[in-house]
Amino acid sequence: ADDERPHIVLAVVDDLGWSDVGYQGSGDLGGATPQLDALAAEGVAFEALYGAAECTPSRAMLLTGRHAVALGLQDSVIHGTEPRGLDLTVATLADKLGARGYGTSAVGKWHLGFHTPKYLPRRRGFDSFFGILTGGGDHFAHSTTESFSVRGNLTSSTTHGATGRNLWEDDGPLGADAFAGYDGVHTTALYAERALKIVDAKFSSKDPHFLYLAYQAVHGPVQADA
């Protein structure tokens, strides 16, 4: 990549508290975030911004630069196959960078709608996607137990392999054989490994690349990697 079009990694940590990182002065974790502390020390830490405290609105704002109210996503997160998502008329950061010649990859948690294919990451500016489409789930089994209301019908279900509720690769859920290789691997390690493969494959090229790395941690359930 050149100076005007550098490679970009946008990493998102889910539900991380303000005082959960060392550079904010918290001593509770005993220096548990040295890499983030180093990035803050060597770069710029923005401490005043308009954000949102929930998954869907915060991601929508981050990827579009528009307030959640303007996107109609300010009230709640998207539950299950609820028939809504990120406004299809609004360009994403991936759309804008792609128009400037960037390759684009998304790894991790999407949570911006998936009830129809046009809301999927590959229709929203990303060349590739690996991760989950919902708001969360078991960090090791990559399945979710979710209660949600769709048009007034309350449903409670445990899903494994159902559309949108397990690991996806690009435009569809992983098959049983591919999924077996990831079953039991914590999401943080799983997404980091995939991100490193993308960096190794794309970041040595003169063609610029944008990697959106959206971790599921530290979003519940609280499951630490052994």
TrEMBL record:
Source organism superkingdom: Eukaryota
InterPro entries: Alkaline_phosphatase_core_sf, ARSB, Sulfatase_CS, Sulfatase_N
SUPFAM superfamilies assigned to the protein according to its UniProt record, in alphabetical order: Alkaline phosphatase-like
Keywords assigned: Calcium, Glycoprotein, Hydrolase, Metal-binding
Ranges where the Sulfatase N-terminal domain occurs: 6-224
MF-aspect GO terms: metal ion binding; sulfuric ester hydrolase activity
Listed Gene3D superfamilies: Alkaline Phosphatase, subunit A (3.40.720.10)
UniProt KW Acyltransferase keyword: no
Pfam families hit by this protein: Sulfatase
Protein family per UniProt: Belongs to the sulfatase family.
Alphabetized PANTHER family for the sequence: ARYLSULFATASE, ARYLSULFATASE B
Protein name: Sulfatase N-terminal domain-containing protein
Protein's organism: Aureococcus anophagefferens
